[in-house]
């Protein structure tokens, strides 16, 4: 039992990551985990048209294109501008949407003349804004066009509407944080809302990642809804840059962002960007259902690296959407039935179950002279119907009773292609998203749930505190536990007390001392810690810094303290290299990466001033030097590493 705690050390740190997810994130709504959704087939949500069957008319269609994270810059060889220009000149004229919404990160705003492997300094660059304006000027004048800023558009702008705020200098930029347009059709009015959750004071990277949904912002949203409530609205879409899981909320998100605005307006979906495709794990973006099951939250992959945009269609007031890659034709959107997650929205599955036709929107590249051929629909690998692949809405007759239970796979083939243009699972009874168990699909589903439902600003705070407290607990145990007292001389009192005092300081003090974190603030230095970020008389939420701090704690401090403690167990260099060496590799690699990133972003001064950089590097090298020599191990240990036990008479 003497070193039993060492065996459980990995479990302790793994549980450190899992516990905050269970306490502050994850999924608390049982409908997510149940096999069926009672709202999916609730007929109270159906209108008379749906009750009598629908699907064979020309459609009451509203089309919207969402583009996000264009990242205009001059260091990628023109790739970002070329992709954006392709959308403007080829996709939008063909689809001819009712509106286009660009959800943030319009420009990149990173300095690109930095030394390799160093972090990039961030600043607003007028030439990038000029490029964006030149590309969008013509299209903007021809249809409804909306933009909102992202965190890249807020890098180093100091304060809203200040001299460094290039976004609000644009003549088309809205001065309000909540904007709305109304698309009026003969069959109804459709409202598009945008919400700007960027920080009031925009720090330089990497401390500008999270959005902030303040009470003032929610109040402005409420005022906008109230002002536009004089006429009936068929459907409402809300657009923002930040997914709700990456926004800090003044009310601690007791009910969630979508629920906080759902009482004000019936939101069909909240569309965002920001996370790109999450290292290509989710090529169709992050998709989730709100906790009350009334609306969707959809994160769209970026245009810059993922080459993606989202087609959004209202067909008879029912929402359909699909993520497409630029350059891949034809563009196909199935508006009935919709994917399984969408049919969890009240009435959607019931509407599809009463329909007479599968409804497919199709758009072709006008540069191609390919003749019109067949559009074929397969369900579960069997041909469900086919028709001529015409431009616009295509109708394929089907019998929904055949697919009334369980989950089914629908595929659309155009022009005799062997590969489906669209493939998704649907359900007419609200069944689970997965027709059969798949380890990969289930793992990605869990990732989606965690990423969409976890309150990351709060979670990171808990991880930072938990990591530091865990290191302190380990050090206290090694000093005062009777089973480890014999090893105390090997830990070197100077190393122990240095680590203990240092961890206590980081828990209550400052991690980083940053020169010029927020431009325009009179104070030259900002002090960043888990308890807050202070620059002069201004206090900023530390949520923007917590990603960097959490990575630093768990991949720098934890390996350093663990390596210092575990190395006292082994006398031979071979065993130390085998069991302790990996910890020091992780520590040194992460330490070097942090110093390079912070030095490139803010200059070498930050590495000398910040307690978590120069002092940590010094402590790490000092503890590694004093503990790596086997001769440092107490003489009270036998060669096999076990302590001698004095016999008492």
UniProtKB/TrEMBL annotation:
Transmembrane keyword on record: yes
Keywords annotated in UniProt: Membrane, Transmembrane, Transmembrane helix
MF GO annotations: hydrolase activity
Keyword Membrane carried by entry: yes
Leader peptide range in chain numbering: none
Domain Calcineurin-like phosphoesterase: 63-276
Pfam family, one: Metallophos
TM regions (residue ranges): 6-25, 463-482, 494-514, 547-566, 578-596, 602-622
Family matches, as InterPro entries: Calcineurin-like_PHP (IPR004843), Metallo-depent_PP-like (IPR029052)
Matching SUPFAM superfamilies: Metallo-dependent phosphatases
Record's protein name: Calcineurin-like phosphoesterase domain-containing protein
């Amino acid at each position: 039992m003497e070193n039993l705690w060492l065996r459980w050390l990995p479990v302790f740190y793994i549980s450190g990551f899992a516990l905050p997810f269970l306490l502050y994130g994850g999924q608390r709504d049982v409908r997510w985990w149940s096999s069926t959704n009672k709202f999916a087939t609730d007929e109270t949500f159906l209108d008379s048209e749906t009750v009598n069957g629908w699907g064979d008319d020309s459609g009451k269609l509203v089309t919207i294109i969402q583009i996000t994270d264009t990242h205009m810059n001059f260091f990628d060889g023109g790739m970002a501008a070329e992709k954006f220009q392709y959308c403007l000149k080829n996709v939008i004229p063909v689809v001819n949407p009712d509106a286009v919404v660009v959800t943030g990160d319009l420009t990149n705003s990173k300095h690109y003349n930095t030394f390799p492997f160093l972090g990039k300094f961030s600043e607003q660059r007028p030439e990038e804004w000029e490029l964006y304006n030149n590309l969008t000027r013509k299209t903007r004048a021809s249809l409804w066009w909306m933009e909102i800023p992202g965190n890249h558009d807020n890098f180093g702008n100091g304060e809203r509407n200040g001299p460094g705020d290039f976004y609000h200098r644009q003549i088309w930029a809205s001065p309000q944080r909540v904007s709305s347009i109304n698309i009026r059709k003969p069959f109804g009015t459709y409202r598009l809302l945008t919400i700007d959750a960027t920080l009031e004071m925009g720090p330089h990277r990497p401390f500008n990642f999270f959005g902030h949904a303040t009470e003032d912002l929610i109040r402005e949203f409420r005022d906008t809804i109230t002002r536009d409530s004089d006429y009936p609205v068929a459907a409402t879409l809300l657009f923002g840059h930040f997914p709700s899981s990456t926004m800090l909320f003044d009310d601690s998100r007791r009910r969630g962002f979508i629920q906080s605005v759902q009482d004000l307006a019936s939101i069909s979906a909240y569309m965002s960007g920001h996370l790109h495709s999450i290292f290509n794990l989710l090529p169709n973006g992050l998709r989730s259902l709100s906790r009350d099951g009334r609306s969707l939250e959809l994160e769209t992959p970026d245009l810059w690296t993922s080459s993606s945009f989202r087609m959004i269609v209202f067909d008879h007031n029912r929402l359909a959407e699909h993520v497409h890659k630029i350059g891949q034709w034809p563009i196909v959107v199935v508006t009935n039935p919709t994917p399984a997650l969408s049919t969890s929205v009240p009435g959607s599955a019931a509407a599809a179950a009463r329909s007479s036709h599968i409804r497919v929107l199709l758009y072709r590249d006008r540069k191609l002279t390919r003749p019109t051929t067949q559009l074929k629909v397969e369900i579960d690998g069997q041909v469900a119907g086919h028709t001529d692949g015409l431009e616009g809405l295509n109708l394929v007759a089907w019998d929904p009773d055949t697919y009334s239970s369980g989950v089914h796979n629908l595929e659309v083939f155009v022009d005799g292609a062997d590969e489906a243009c669209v493939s998704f699972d649907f359900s007419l009874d609200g069944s689970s998203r997965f027709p059969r168990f798949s380890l990969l699909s289930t793992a990605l589903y869990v990732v989606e749930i965690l990423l969409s439902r976890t309150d990351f600003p709060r979670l990171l705070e808990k991880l930072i505190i938990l990591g530091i407290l865990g290191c302190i607990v380990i050090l206290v145990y090694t000093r005062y536990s009777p089973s480890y007292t014999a090893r105390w001389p090997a830990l070197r009192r100077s190393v122990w007390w240095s680590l203990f005092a240092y961890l206590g300081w980081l828990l209550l003090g400052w991690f980083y001392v940053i020169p010029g974190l927020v431009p325009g603030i009179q104070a030259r230095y900002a002090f960043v810690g888990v308890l807050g970020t202070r620059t002069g008389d201004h206090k900023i939420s530390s949520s923007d810094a917590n990603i960097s701090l959490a990575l630093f704690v768990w991949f720098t401090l934890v390996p350093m303290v663990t390596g210092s403690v575990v190395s006292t167990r082994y006398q031979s260099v071979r065993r130390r290299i085998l069991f302790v060496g990996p910890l020091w590799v992780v520590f040194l690699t992460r330490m070097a990466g942090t110093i390079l990133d912070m030095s490139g972003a803010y200059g070498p001064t930050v590495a000398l001033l910040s307690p978590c950089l120069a002092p940590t590097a010094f402590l790490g090298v000092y503890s590694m030097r004093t503990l790596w020599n086997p001769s440092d191990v107490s003489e009270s240990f036998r060669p096999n590493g076990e302590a001698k036990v004095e016999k008492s008479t």
